[in-house]
C-alpha cells in the first residue's frame, strides 16, 4: 500500500511517498517559495534510485504545489506510480489538535471544521496545514486524508503538568494551557528506543530530547507523556535558534513599554529575533560552535545557557518521574552534535549517567547506545522519523 505524507508550511510543501509493506521511501521532495511574487517556486524531487530533479516554475498556492508534486509522482519518465489511485491515503502533519484531538484522525467535513476552529492556537502554522488538507481533498477527492497532530502525544499530561496558574476562567474560555509540541517526534523516538532495547515502553521512565532549531523535552512515564517543556506555544522551554525560551513574564510588558512595540511586534521579537540569533547573530548551533572555537564570548554564553537549560529540565523530570531509565537524544543538534551530548551527559553523572565519551565522539545520525554497560541510565541516540510515523498512523487508520 502506498501512503503519501505531506508537511505544509506557509510557503513550502514537503512530501514523501512510502511503500508501507517495506516502509521504503519511493520518492521525496520539497516545493519552496509557494506564492512568491519575486520569482518562481523551486521544486526538488528525489527518486528511489537517488536521482535528483530540480525545476523552477510559477506556483501560486498549495493546490498548484500539490498538483506539481502529483505530476512528478505519475510522470511517465520519472514517476513512481502509474495512477493516483495507487495512493491509498495522504497523511498530513498538523501542528495543533487542541483538546479535541489526542490521536490521528481521518479528516471528514466535521474533523476539518474542528481543525479550522484551532487556527488561533497556531496562527503561524495552522493556515498552511489546513491549506494542504483542502488541496488534497480537491485534487484527490476519493483518497482518505489523515491528520496527525504534533500536540496529540502530550494530551496524556496530568492537569498538574498542563494548567497555568492564571485565573481559571481563561482556561475554560480561551483554553490557555500547556499543549507541548514535537509530539510526533517524541512518540517515534520513545517507541523506537524501547524497541532497540527490547523492553516495554510502559515499564520505562524515559526522557526524550528533541533538539534542533526548535527544541523540547518530554518526560515519559508508563508509556505516556507526563510533562513537556513547550507550553501554550512552542516558545516556552529551552533556548532555541530564534526563540527565547523560558523567561520572567514581566519582561514582556517592560519591553513593550520601553521599545514602544505592539503585541505582534513583541511576539516577533521573542519568536524570531531572540534565542541564539538574538544573543550572537547566529541561529544555527554549527555556527555557534565555530564562533566558540574562535573565542566569541557571546557564543560561549549562548552555548552555556543552552546546556544549563537542558540539564535543568532533565533534572526536574528525573524528580518528577522518580528516577530515570533511558535518556534519548534526537533531531538536528541531538543527532549530530557530539559535543552537546557530551557536555549534557557529563553534568548528569550524579543522576547515574555513565557516558561513553569515546563511542560518542564523531557519531552523527545513527542509532546507538552511548552509555557504558554499568550505567544506571541508558543514554541513546535515535534519529527521528516523523514522516514514517505519520505514514504508519495513516496506514493503521485506513486499514481498520
Automatic annotation (TrEMBL):
<keyword id="KW-0547">Nucleotide-binding</keyword>
<keyword id="KW-0067">ATP-binding</keyword>
<keyword id="KW-0963">Cytoplasm</keyword>
<protein>
    <recommendedName>
        <fullName>Acetate kinase</fullName>
        <ecNumber>2.7.2.1</ecNumber>
    </recommendedName>
</protein>
<feature type="binding site">
    <location>
        <position position="93"/>
    </location>
    <ligand>
        <name>substrate</name>
    </ligand>
</feature>
<dbReference type="GO" id="GO:0006083">
    <property type="term" value="P:acetate metabolic process"/>
</dbReference>
<dbReference type="GO" id="GO:0008776">
    <property type="term" value="F:acetate kinase activity"/>
</dbReference>
<comment type="pathway">
    <text>Metabolic intermediate biosynthesis; acetyl-CoA biosynthesis; acetyl-CoA from acetate: step 1/2.</text>
</comment>
<dbReference type="GO" id="GO:0005737">
    <property type="term" value="C:cytoplasm"/>
</dbReference>
<dbReference type="GO" id="GO:0006085">
    <property type="term" value="P:acetyl-CoA biosynthetic process"/>
</dbReference>
<dbReference type="GO" id="GO:0000287">
    <property type="term" value="F:magnesium ion binding"/>
</dbReference>
<dbReference type="Pfam" id="PF00871">
    <property type="entry name" value="Acetate_kinase"/>
</dbReference>
<dbReference type="InterPro" id="IPR004372">
    <property type="entry name" value="Ac/propionate_kinase"/>
</dbReference>
<feature type="site" description="Transition state stabilizer">
    <location>
        <position position="243"/>
    </location>
</feature>
<feature type="binding site">
    <location>
        <begin position="284"/>
        <end position="286"/>
    </location>
    <ligand>
        <name>ATP</name>
    </ligand>
</feature>
<comment type="similarity">
    <text>Belongs to the acetokinase family.</text>
</comment>
<feature type="binding site">
    <location>
        <position position="14"/>
    </location>
    <ligand>
        <name>ATP</name>
    </ligand>
</feature>
<feature type="binding site">
    <location>
        <position position="386"/>
    </location>
    <ligand>
        <name>Mg(2+)</name>
    </ligand>
</feature>
<dbReference type="GO" id="GO:0005524">
    <property type="term" value="F:ATP binding"/>
</dbReference>
<keyword id="KW-0808">Transferase</keyword>
<feature type="binding site">
    <location>
        <begin position="210"/>
        <end position="214"/>
    </location>
    <ligand>
        <name>ATP</name>
    </ligand>
</feature>
<feature type="binding site">
    <location>
        <begin position="332"/>
        <end position="336"/>
    </location>
    <ligand>
        <name>ATP</name>
    </ligand>
</feature>
<feature type="binding site">
    <location>
        <position position="7"/>
    </location>
    <ligand>
        <name>Mg(2+)</name>
    </ligand>
</feature>
<dbReference type="InterPro" id="IPR023865">
    <property type="entry name" value="Aliphatic_acid_kinase_CS"/>
</dbReference>
<comment type="subunit">
    <text>Homodimer.</text>
</comment>
<feature type="site" description="Transition state stabilizer">
    <location>
        <position position="182"/>
    </location>
</feature>
<keyword id="KW-0479">Metal-binding</keyword>
<dbReference type="InterPro" id="IPR000890">
    <property type="entry name" value="Aliphatic_acid_kin_short-chain"/>
</dbReference>
<feature type="active site" description="Proton donor/acceptor">
    <location>
        <position position="150"/>
    </location>
</feature>
<keyword id="KW-0418">Kinase</keyword>
<comment type="function">
    <text>Catalyzes the formation of acetyl phosphate from acetate and ATP. Can also catalyze the reverse reaction.</text>
</comment>
<dbReference type="InterPro" id="IPR043129">
    <property type="entry name" value="ATPase_NBD"/>
</dbReference>
<keyword id="KW-0460">Magnesium</keyword>
